[in-house]
C-alpha cells in the first residue's frame, strides 16, 4: 500500500514538474470601501489579471450584493459575451456596464444610489481555463452628504484642474510674447534703405560757379602788382601803337 501511494505521489510530482498540471488563478482588484451621496451615480471599479490569454467569448463576470442587515444575497449583474443587467429586484434598471474585457476591466455603475444599497458588492471573474482565484469586494456606504475627505478630494481635483488651465494659459501667452519679440527683432535687424546724404558745404548744382583756367599766360604788372592777361595787354598796346603810326603818316603828308 505504501509503495502504491509513493508511486502515485511520484507520478503527480512528475506531471507538475513537466507542466501538465498547472495551478491557475485569477486575481481580482477592487477599492475595498467607498462612499456615495444619496441620489448620485456610483462607479464600482473592478479589474482583474489572468494567467491565461483573455478570450472575449469565454470571460464570465458576476456581481452580487450582500445587504448590511441579514438577508439573502442578490444578483446585481452578469456578463457573458454581452452584459445582462438585472430584470427584477432593487437593482432593476439601475445597473450600467462600464467595463472593458480586453482592458481587463469589469466595472459597473449604479445609477441614483439609495440607502437600501448599503452593503457589500462582490465581483467575480472567470477566464477559462483560469476559473479559480480570489474575488473582489466593495463595501458601499450611502450617505446624505459627502464626508470631509470626499469634499477635500473634490476640492483638490477642482483646484488641480484650475491650476492646469492657468499654467496652460501662461505657457500660451509666453509663447505669443516670445513670437512677437522675435518678429520685432527680425524687423529691427533688417537694414533700412540708405538715404543719400549731401554735403551741406557743397553748392547746389544750379548755384555752383564753374571755374575755368585760361590757356593764356598771366603777367604781373610791376607798377601796381596787379595780375593782367598778356593777351589783353598786347591788344591794348597794339591799339596805342596804331595811332602813333597814323600820326606819323599824317606828318609826312603834311610835309
From TrEMBL:
Q: Which cellular component, as a GO term, is one annotated location?
A: plasma membrane
Which residues does the annotated region (Disordered) include? 184-255
Q: Where is the signal peptide?
A: 1-17
Q: Where is the composition biased (Polar residues)?
A: 203-220
Q: Which residues form a coiled coil?
A: none
Among CDD domains, the record links this protein to: IgV_EVA1 (cd05880)
UniProt biased composition (Acidic residues): 237-255
The primary location reported for this protein is membrane
Listed Basic and acidic residues bias regions: 191-201
Q: Which UniProt keywords apply?
A: Disulfide bond, Glycoprotein, Immunoglobulin domain, Membrane, Signal, Transmembrane, Transmembrane helix
- Transmembrane segments in this chain: where? 151-175
Q: Which GO terms describe its biological process?
A: cell-cell adhesion
* Membrane topology term: Single-pass type I membrane protein
PANTHER family xref list: MYELIN P0 RELATED, MYELIN PROTEIN ZERO-LIKE PROTEIN 2
Query: Which family is this protein grouped under?
Result: Belongs to the myelin P0 protein family.
**Protein's UniProt name:** Myelin protein zero like 2
User: Could you tell me which species this protein originates from?
Assistant: Cynoglossus semilaevis (Tongue sole)
Amino acid at each position: 500500500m505504501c509503495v502504491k501511494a509513493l508511486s502515485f505521489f511520484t507520478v503527480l510530482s512528475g506531471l507538475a514538474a513537466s507542466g501538465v498540471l498547472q495551478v491557475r488563478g485569477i486575481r481580482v482588484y477592487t477599492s475595498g470601501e467607498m462612499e456615495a451621496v444619496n441620489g448620485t451615480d456610483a462607479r464600482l471599479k473592478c479589474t482583474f489579471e489572468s494567467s491565461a490569454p483573455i478570450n472575449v467569448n469565454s470571460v464570465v463576470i458576476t456581481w452580487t450584493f450582500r445587504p448590511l442587515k441579514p438577508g439573502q444575497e442578490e444578483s446585481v449583474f452578469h456578463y457573458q459575451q454581452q452584459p445582462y443587467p438585472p430584470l427584477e429586484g432593487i437593482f432593476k434598471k439601475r445597473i450600467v456596464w462600464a467595463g472593458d474585457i480586453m482592458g481587463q476591466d469589469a466595472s459597473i455603475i449604479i445609477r441614483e444610489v439609495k440607502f437600501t444599497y448599503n452593503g457589500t458588492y462582490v465581483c467575480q471573474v472567470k477566464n477559462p481555463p483560469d476559473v479559480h482565484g480570489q474575488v473582489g469586494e466593495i463595501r458601499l456606504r450611502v450617505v446624505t452628504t459627502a464626508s470631509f475627505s470626499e469634499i477635500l478630494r473634490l476640492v483638490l481635483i477642482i483646484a488641480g484642474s484650475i491650476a492646469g488651465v492657468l499654467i496652460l494659459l501662461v505657457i500660451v501667452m509666453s509663447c505669443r510674447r516670445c513670437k512677437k519679440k522675435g518678429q520685432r527683432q527680425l524687423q529691427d535687424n533688417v537694414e533700412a534703405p540708405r538715404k543719400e546724404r549731401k554735403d551741406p558745404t557743397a553748392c547746389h548744382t544750379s548755384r555752383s560757379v564753374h571755374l575755368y583756367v585760361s590757356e593764356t599766360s598771366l603777367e604781373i604788372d610791376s607798377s601796381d602788382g596787379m595780375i593782367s592777361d598778356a593777351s589783353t595787354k598786347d591788344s591794348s598796346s597794339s591799339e596805342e601803337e596804331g595811332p602813333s603810326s597814323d600820326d606819323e603818316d599824317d606828318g609826312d603828308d603834311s610835309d
